């Protein structure tokens, strides 16, 4: 194998970390093959003590073929045979191999299957449907229906599953949304009610189209506040269009300015309380989804790609003997 001086330098540098950065078609795979082969033939490293991780299964297969071929070219027949079972794979292939070797220690079915993306998607969709059915059948039905109507079932499924996957990608085996903190309620409601009365008095008998519209909004705002119980917080949509601009002289006084400020503070509080209520419901729905998704995988003795990574991480982190054996093998 003819290598350029730069490629040969990368091959020869085997006593520590090396980063090879080059464009497509510049011989990076050839360098990897030669580093692998020379580590075995010149440095005395066992074939099964070299770990090579690729991005795709196709790349892993090609690398294995080329390593085996290079050994054969150099007359190293035993090493060429051993290359068939070398540790050359994707990260998920590596994790799967570790878990199959230590399935009992990992607490999983020794005959587990790796779910491909299509099958995992089917399991996830079924899990969401079952979670949603249970979610709707239990308590506070109006609130739950409102949440679904606001997002639609499909968008809600995408949103929740994306959040679930994101949390798993951060290393959480059983993701859940954090416990939400209910926004404190200060004097926003009292301030808005007082400002409504003050603004109406300030407008008084003033006339004009804009003044009439503002007066109607003030009256509707006062009525909406009066319909609330002491513990209620309004829906943001009920108040969103009840403010007005100072487009007429009668609407530019200090009482109208105070109403606009009080309305903004109340609207913000309503939005925060609605977000909190939605968060509580989504937390419940995600918990149900996670349980059904895990159950669906168990029924199939299946693991998805995240499971492979997370279970391997926990196995190596929690079992010192197994961790030490792999550290020694690939040192």
Q: Could you explain the architecture of this structure?
A:
This protein is mainly alpha-helical and 331 residues long. The protein folds into two domains: 5-106 and 320-329, Rossmann fold, CATH 3.40.50; 116-299. It is 65% helix and 4% strand. It has 15 helices and four strands. The strands form two sheets. Strands 1-2 form a two-stranded parallel ribbon. The protein has a two-stranded parallel ribbon with strand order 3-4. The mean pLDDT is 93.
Key words describing this protein structure:
two-stranded parallel sheet; 2 domains; mainly alpha; Rossmann fold; 331 residues; single chain
Total number of β-strand segments? 4
Strand count, sense and barrel status of the largest sheet are: 2 strands, parallel
The helix-strand sequence is HHEHHEHHEHHHHHHHEHH
Integer tally of domains: 2
What is the 3D shape? elongated
* End-to-end distance: 27 Å
Across the major sheet, the strand order is 1-2
Number of helices: 15
Structural class: mainly alpha
Outline of this structure?
Helices cover 65% and strands 4% of the residues.
List the helices and strands and how they pair.
Layout: H1 5-12, H2 28-41, E1 51-54, H3 57-73, H4 77-82, E2 87-90, H5 91-101, H6 103-106, E3 113-114, H7 117-136, H8 141-151, H9 153-169, H10 188-203, H11 209-226, H12 236-239, H13 254-299, E4 302-303, H14 305-318, H15 320-329
Parallel strand pairs: 1-2, 3-4
């Amino acid at each position: 194998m003819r290598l350029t001086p730069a490629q040969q330098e990368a091959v020869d540098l085997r006593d520590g970390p090396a980063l090879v950065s080059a464009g497509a078609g510049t011989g990076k795979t050839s360098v990897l093959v030669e580093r692998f082969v020379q580590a075995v033939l010149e440095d005395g490293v066992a074939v099964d003590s070299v770990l090579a991780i690729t991005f795709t299964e196709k790349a892993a297969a090609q690398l294995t073929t080329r390593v085996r071929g290079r050994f054969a070219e150099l007359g190293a027949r035993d090493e060429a045979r051993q290359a068939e079972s070398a540790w050359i794979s994707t990260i998920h292939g590596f994790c799967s191999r570790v878990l199959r070797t230590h399935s009992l220690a990992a607490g999983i079915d020794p005959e587990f299957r790796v779910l491909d993306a299509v099958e995992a998607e089917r399991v996830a969709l079924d899990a969401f449907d079952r979670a949603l059915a249970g979610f709707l059948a239990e308590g506070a039905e109006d609130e739950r229906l409102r949440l679904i109507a606001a997002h639609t079932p499909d968008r809600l499924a995408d949103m929740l599953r994306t959040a679930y996957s994101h949390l798993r990608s951060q290393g959480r085996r059983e993701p859940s949304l954090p416990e939400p903190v209910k926004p404190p309620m200060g004097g926003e409601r009292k301030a808005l009610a007082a400002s409504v009365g003050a603004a109406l008095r300030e407008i008084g008998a003033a006339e004009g189209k804009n003044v009439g519209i503002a007066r109607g909004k003030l009256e509707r705002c006062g009525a909406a506040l009066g319909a609330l119980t002491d513990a209620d917080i309004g829906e943001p949509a009920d108040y969103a269009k009840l403010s007005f601009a100072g487009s007429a002289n009668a609407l530019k006084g200090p009482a109208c300015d105070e109403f606009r400020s009080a309305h903004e503070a109340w609207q913000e509080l309503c939005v925060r309380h609605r977000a909190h209520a939605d968060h509580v419901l989504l937390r419940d729905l995600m918990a149900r989804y996670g349980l059904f998704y895990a159950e669906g995988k168990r029924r199939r003795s299946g693991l998805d790609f995240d499971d492979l990574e997370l279970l391997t991480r926990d196995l190596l982190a929690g079992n010192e003997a197994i961790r030490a054996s792999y550290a020694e093998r690939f040192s």
